[in-house]
Amino acid sequence: AGSVKTLSTGKITEEIRTAAYSSEFSGYHGLLQTTIAVEPDKVDCSSETLPCGSEGYFRFNQSCTDFYECHFNTECQKFLSSPIETCPKCLKFNAKKMRCDFPWNVPECGNLHNIKMKENYCTAPGKYFVPDDCHKYYECIENSNGTIDLTVKTCPSPLKFNKNDRQCAEEDDIPVRPECESPNLYVGDLFDCRKFYRCNGGKPLITLYCPENAIFNGHFCERKSDSHLLLCGDVEGKFNALFSRVSNINTKSGPFDCLFCVGNFFGVNNKEFELYKSGERKAPIPTYILGPNSAEHANLYPDDDSVELCENVYCLGKRGVYTDSKGIRVAYISGISSKESNKHEYSSKDVAELYNACVRGNASFRGIDILLTAQWPSGITKNDPKKIALAVNKTSDLPSWLVLKLKPRYHISGLEGIYYERSPFRCPNLGDHDTTLNIVTRFLGLARVGNPNKEKWLYALNLTPLDKMKIAELLQKTTDETECPFDFTEIDHKIFNTKRKSAGASQYFYDTNAHEESDYGRRRPKRQKIEFDQSKCWFCLSSPSVEKHLIVTVGNATYLALAKGGIVDEHLLISPIEHHQNSLGLPEAALQEMNQFKEALRNFYGRDERVAVFFERNYKTSHMQLQAVPIPKQAVKELKEIFIDEAEARGLKLEVLESRNRLDQVVQANVPFFTVELPDGVVLYTRIKGNFPLNFAREVLVSGPVLNLDERSDWKDCILKKGAEEVLVQRLRTDFEPFDFTDS
């Protein structure tokens, strides 16, 4: 997590993750700072102090970023102040909550745009490189009054700034920045908290921006709508200690949306819980717990699945998926693994059914945000440089299997009685039908509440739902990643007695059943071949099913139509009039006319400085559609790399063609394929071998580096009423008329 930066000198007394920096310009990462207790050194009681009337943190001279702490010194018998501190990058000091906070929570300090780092970055004198201009550098200069100002300076031509020795130097003497060798790394801007840069393998950096309601935290864009969650380990009947700590943290560092507890919630003595059941006391925030892990605790839980035990305390039940109000998806399974399934034990069938519940109805399943299990996964410490000894050793292969299949961003467990934050790892893609992204998993083993060794038992997370994040954000590399500790083939064989074959084959077998909503491990019957009924085709002009009000113009062999639920108003389709499944089977006349439409659209889009992206998906379609989407000219840069990177994230490989006309030389007409033609003429393609994400091209185009329209990633969310479609088509007919070569 990087080095810990505290609000002031002293010891961190709250067992909660704190602000940290992972590199010089990584920016703020993690959680807001929590309560800090100071153990002051010997002080001069006669020394001057800043205004103090009580203990706490206070804003310095109306600054939005500088603050100091007041504490009562028993030796001096008066309040003393600490040295002036500065909030981490992009944060403001919240005087009401006495802590550093997100800009949107401190309205008196203005919005989060163009936050001058003169106020909140210079904590010590020094020189720092400018990410997008190698001739310039930032210099933090200390004034006579102790404050530090930031200035921008330029090296004398032709010198450039050398980050290593922080001096201007000849270009030949400056090594390539190691942090920008990989195109997957990002660095934040010093002056604008929404601005950051994508490293480009030694080439000039690519400038990107977070959405209006977000700031770049060094790893991804952090949004106002993120979920703020607390996680705790085994409570074991210490309810007062738990809720007292949670209440304190929620007041000073919240509000938090909810608390999740793993491990044993009940213990040997549960008398304190009677106060909560009677209503004399109340959990400060909604608290969700797992079910029992032993027979003696089973009678403390109702027989009903997912039930309220007392006000604000809920049992999640045996297994399932909980989705919070902001879209965070939490998969969970209660109990200890066993061959049989009962109230306090779960079996291989339970984990299979949990997996099916996560992917059912989601053809483009990316993964899960959080996985909660009482038990640690077997082998979790493998490949991790941190060496620990398990106290209880109640690990199981079943949670390991779930991690491989669900690829959670966070996996939280208890029972072992120790705190362990494993180095992040990425689980491999399990075959053609695995649509999950190759995202990082972080495992956390939490200790017992109030344990004598003072090991961390309470943890805070600030998460954006996985489904609302850009793929590039999810794929960002970390410097401390390790290899995946689990072997899917080995674990799958042990649990389900499958043959020791490749992971891809096994994945195909399981995923096919999951999407068919049948029992895990049961082969589905062979399907009969279905004859296509052309009269029901949505795109054949002779079909009564075609929505003719979407048609813009008709040629001799092809036609141009508005895309239903388009990304932008000018998102159009080129389709053949007669029924053809894909472009490889088009007659020569239709192919030539389609190329005429493409050239007309290039000119049409070019009138307002936009360029065309064309793509075709010959998969789960019965009638050929070439989709055309206009994008700004400036978005073309690195578009090829963006498509390739995001394809790799889904286990796909896009290859480059010399020209669109050569597709028939590498792909047969009856083979599913995807192809995209970029504005610079580059054509990419892939043969589809498995469960291809239907919205792949659309998700790339709506992403931040291209159109920055994430909310339009699903066409079903963008459908207009028929009247609005008719108005839009009429306008398109008028606007396209100067470029229309047809006689219609």
TrEMBL record:
Signal peptide: none
An annotated GO BP: mRNA splicing, via spliceosome
Gene Ontology molecular function: chitin binding; RNA lariat debranching enzyme activator activity
Alphabetized InterPro entries for the sequence: Chitin-bd_dom, Chitin-bd_dom_sf, Cwf19-like, Cwf19-like_C_dom-1, Cwf19-like_C_dom-2
Superkingdom classification of source: Eukaryota
Residue ranges of domain Chitin-binding type-2 in the record: 119-182
A Pfam family per the record: CBM_14
A single Gene Ontology CC term: post-mRNA release spliceosomal complex
Family named by the database record: Belongs to the CWF19 family.
This protein's name: CWF19-like protein 1
Organism for this UniProt entry: Asbolus verrucosus
